[in-house]
UniProtKB/TrEMBL annotation:
Catalytic EC class: hydrolase
Leader sequence residues: none
Coiled-coil ranges from the UniProt annotation: none
Known EC number: 3.4.-.-
A matching Pfam family: SRAP
Keyword Hydrolase in record: yes
Similarity annotation: Belongs to the SOS response-associated peptidase family.
Annotated transmembrane regions: none
Keyword list, A-Z: Covalent protein-DNA linkage, DNA damage, DNA-binding, Hydrolase, Lyase, Protease
Protein name as annotated: Abasic site processing protein
Entry-linked InterPro entries: SRAP, SRAP-like
């Protein structure tokens, strides 16, 4: 978790929503079925001539550490467990210096029934607003490519996850109900951020990675309290299917 999500906003909308700019022109297609290794938008901040710049980039979903021999292992690093990422060589340096925000509209999860039956659910904010997940990014240099090859650098990212919030942690009956549903769905969730949390998370001048991870984890319950879980059709299980119809609610199997 999470292994599929929706990101169906245009570049111009993302730039406006995040008050970000482009370092280079990017091509980005809307997707209702984002899968590992897909190209997705991320928002990051960099110091350029001592000025803080917030930028929109396109990254491969599945983090490839800078020291990796090749990018093949990135598909296994689509998620970073927030409880242990500071202990993992693949993530700990990125947590200190290369943190990002991952825009999304919602994500998919599958609930298991009897036998082989599975019901996909679309998890999203009930008010129609977008999501922002906490993420990490890395640049990987292809040593076999020439210095003037524009494809010599690969930008990749991973989404932070945590244990699913419990109903006991909820502040209202409504959010308790949501957390009960989430717990029944899966024991892990991607970590959402509110605007204030995102501001701190993105700042590259902040080096207290442990404190930032704790902050994101502590704020995630409130950020997820308004989520809605809709059963959707089985077509989302095939990565070749990609259209707005995938998120339309259907009658659940169980």
């Amino acid at each position: 978790m999470c292994g599929r999500y929706v990101m169906a906003r245009a570049v111009g909308d993302l730039l406006a929503d995040f008050d970000a700019e482009l370092e280079n022109e990017i091509a980005l297609e809307k997707s209702w079925n984002v899968a590992p290794t897909d190209a997705v938008p991320i928002v990051l901040e960099r110091l350029v001539d001592d000025n803080l710049k917030r930028q929109l980039h396109v990254a491969k979903w599945g983090l490839v550490p800078s020291w990796a021999k090749d990018p093949k292992g990135g598909a296994r690093l689509i998620n970073a467990r927030s409880e242990t990422l500071l202990e993992k060589p693949s993530f700990k340096k990125a947590a200190v210096a290369r943190r990002c925000a991952v825009p999304a509209d919602g994500y998919y999860e599958w609930k298991k029934g009897e036998g082989k039956n599975k019901q996909p659910y679309y998890v999203h904010p009930g008010d129609g607003q977008a999501l922002v997940f906490a993420g990490l990014y890395e640049w990987w240099r292809d040593q076999s490519a020439a210095d003037d090859d524009p494809g010599r650098w690969l930008l990749s990212m991973s989404i932070l996850t945590a244990d699913t919030p419990t109903a006991e942690s909820a502040r209202t009956r409504r959010s308790a109900s949501v957390f009960d549903e989430l717990t029944a769905l899966h024991d892990r969730v991607p970590l959402p951020m509110d605007p204030e949390t995102m501001e701190a998370w993105l700042d590259p001048r902040e080096k207290d990675a442990a404190g930032l991870v704790d902050m994101v984890r502590s704020k995630a319950h409130d950020a997820a309290s308004g989520w809605t879980l809709d059963p959707v059709g089985s077509a989302v299980g095939n990565v070749r299917n990609n259209s707005p119809e995938l998120i339309e609610p259907v009658e659940g199997l169980f």
